[in-house]
Amino acid sequence: MPTDTRQRRIRTALIGCGRQATWILHPAIGVLPRYEVIACCDMNPESATRAAQRFAGARVYESHGEMLAREELDAAVVATTPENHAAIVAECLRAGLHAFVEKPPAKTVEEARALVALSQETGRQVMVGFMMRFRPLNAWAARLATEMAQPPALFNLHVGVGLWRSKVTGYSGTLYFLLSVGIHYFDLVRFFLGEVRQVDARLVEYGEGRAAYAMLLDCVRGVCVFDLNSCEQLTFTDDRRLGGHVNERWNLVGPGTALHLENCDTLTWLRTDGRVERYQPSYLGLSFLEGQAYYAGGYYQELAEFAASIDEGRAPAVTIEDGRRALEIVFAVAQSAQTGERIRVEN
Ligand SMILES: NC(=O)c1ccc[n+]([C@@H]2O[C@H](COP(=O)([O-])OP(=O)(O)OC[C@H]3O[C@@H](n4cnc5c(N)ncnc54)[C@H](O)[C@@H]3O)[C@@H](O)[C@H]2O)c1
Questions:
Q1: Going by DSSP bridges, is the β-strand pair 75-78/10-15 parallel, antiparallel, or unpaired?
Q2: Is the distance from CB of 130 to CB of 326 less than 8 angstroms?
């Protein structure tokens, strides 16, 4: 069972070769020199074969069980579906691999808790794909905020996407919307304001995958007002066509100061001395693959961090415990929206 990757590259398996994997994760892995892709696995053999063409010598599998039994591997990058993420990651850990898993890492809090325990038991890391922390302007804003004498304590967040349908058996479209989209932002709220202690949420349902949540999240370092809707332009439908944009804006407000981010593109800082600073990074210095979507989106950095954590024998910046805490918020919000009551979040 290989462990020490310092003298060689990280022998990696890619499990789940669908849209997120082949459009986003695999291109980033392809330009990160620490990864050596040994195998691509998808229950759809055509998808695995197509994905393997990107990585010279990569073998193709339909079953991750067979792959884990046959190959000598250090790590897996898992992007299948929320329904089976937890089970597949657990098998990888038991086979001695570290795992990067797309969000949501599990479909229930209990599954996530079991992964936290298994990660400790096996001494193998699980990193969750909460790439928003790695987006340059979010990371920059967090740094500016912590350097302020009185850090901003009000986080005002608006996110609008398009039609949303459930891909998890037994879950309503509105719960799946929190599980697959809301979860990213719950992690971002924790990133800026610390642990979420309690939530108040209301839900407006228009039917047919159109809904809006209004939420108040009470955090250790402040309060977040978050409205999240699936009534705008971005459309994920069953035929997997993607169109439009996520409409995302946020403000971090403190005494005499505010940080404002518009669609991940321009960060404006209203300083306490009255000056206004704008940050609009240019990615022109990066190669095309490293730039734009992969770098600006935070995907390149999250996968670089996963590799670094393996090489350095330490926990990654985002762990399965962060995944568990974000899932606790998902289900607390769902419960609050259903009951109309304020719900305490388990930390
Ligand atoms: N971080 C982000 O920005 C982001 C964006 C989109 C999707 N995602 C996440 O990525 C994951 C994948 O989403 P997607 O849009 O690529 O879905 P998808 O349906 O396009 O791809 C999933 C792939 O996994 C394969 N698969 C399913 N079960 C499998 C198994 N047991 N063994 C092997 N292969 C299996 C399917 O055949 C399919 O090719 C989801 O969890 C989703 O939430 C993350």
A1: parallel
A2: yes
> Higher-confidence residue: 29 or 164?
29
Cα 344 from Cα 301, distance rounded (Å):
33
Same domain, 240 and 145: yes
Pocket lining for ligand 1, CB < 6 angstroms: 15-21, 41-44, 47, 64, 79-82, 84, 102-103, 129, 131, 180
CATH code, 41: 3.40.50.720
Kindly report the protein residue whose alpha carbon is nearest to atom 34 of ligand 1: 42
Using the atom order of ligand 1, give the atom closest to the CA of residue 44: 37
Residue 210's domain is classified under what CATH number?
Answer: 3.30.360.10
Count of structural domains within the chain:
2
Distance (angstroms) between ligand 1 centre and the Cα of 80 equals: 4
Q: Please name every residue paired with 99 in a beta bridge, in sequence order, or none if there are none.
A: 76, 126
pTM: 0.94
Are 191 and 138 in contact by the 8 Å Cβ rule? The answer is yes
Residue 88 Cα, ligand 1 centroid: separation in angstroms?
A: 12
292 backbone φψ class: left, alpha, beta (φ>0; ψ -120 to 50): left
Q: Tell me, yes or no, whether 54 and 191 share the same domain.
A: no
The pLDDT score that the predictor gives to residue 239 is: 36
Mutate to test the pocket of ligand 1, among 14, 15, 19 (most ligand atoms within 8 A of CB): 19
Strand order in the sheet with 59-61: 59-61, 35-41, 10-15, 75-78, 98-101, 126-128
238 inside domain: yes
- 12-21, 96-105, 107-116, 291-300: which has the minimum mean pLDDT? 291-300
Q: Which domain holds residue 170?
A: 132-287+324-344
Report which protein residue has its CA nearest ligand 1's atom 21: 18
Cα of 105 vs centre of ligand 1, distance in Å, is 11
CB 280 within 8 A of CB 263: no
Cis amide leading into 104 (omega within 30):
yes
